């Protein structure tokens, strides 16, 4: 699973995800992409699950690029613990995704295979997505 090698701070504020993606909104590597259309936080496990769904459907043909990285530590307090006594320990890593961000890219497979692979991957993610191509036609 993806996680940073080292970070400046051990714990982070929750924050809010407003606005559209500033960068990473166009295809840079592959011919097909999976673009977010709603804001959400994606965990490292969800990214890995989506990646597995894509590569299994493609039968390891072609190439996959992951354009997001989980760099935000998410802390949780144990179950049935009273309020107070500080912030919980970091439990998992997440990535804040804004609308318009291309999360995955594919190349080396047909349009139908890419579209189906991204449909399987989108089912693993907690946000709305759109299939995009180099030519700009969605669908």
Write the layout of secondary structure elements.
Layout lengths: L31 E5 L3 E4 H14 L5 E4 L5 E5 L12 E9 L4 E6 L3 H12 L6 E5 L6
Antiparallel strand pairs: 1-6, 1-7, 2-5, 3-6, 4-5
What does this structure look like?
The protein is α+β, with helices and mostly antiparallel strands and 139 residues long. It is built from 2 helices and 7 strands; from the N terminus they run E-E-H-E-E-E-E-H-E. It has a 4-stranded antiparallel beta sheet, with helices on one face. A 3-stranded antiparallel beta sheet has the order 2-5-4. Helix 1 (44-57) runs antiparallel to helix 2 (111-122). The longest helix is centred in the middle third of the chain and has 14 residues, at 44-57. The two termini are 30 Å apart.
Going across the major beta sheet, what is the strand order? Answer: 3-6-1-7
Name the average pLDDT: 95
Helix content, binned percent: 10-25%
Residue stretches low in confidence (pLDDT < 50, at least 5 long) are: none
CATH homology-level superfamily of the domain at 28-69 and 98-134: Ribosomal protein L16/L10
Largest sheet: 4 strands, antiparallel
Strand content: 25-35%
String of helices and strands? EEHEEEEHE
Please report the distance between the alpha carbons of the first and last residues. 30 Å
Give the overall silhouette.
Answer: elongated
User: What Rg, in angstroms, do the CA atoms define?
Assistant: 17 Å
What is the architecture of the domain at 28-69 and 98-134 at the second tier of CATH?
A: Alpha-Beta Complex
Instruction: Give the CATH class of the domain at 28-69 and 98-134.
Output: Alpha Beta
Broad structural category: alpha+beta
Number of helices: 2
CATH topology of the domain at 28-69 and 98-134: Aldehyde Oxidoreductase, domain 3
Count of strand segments? 7
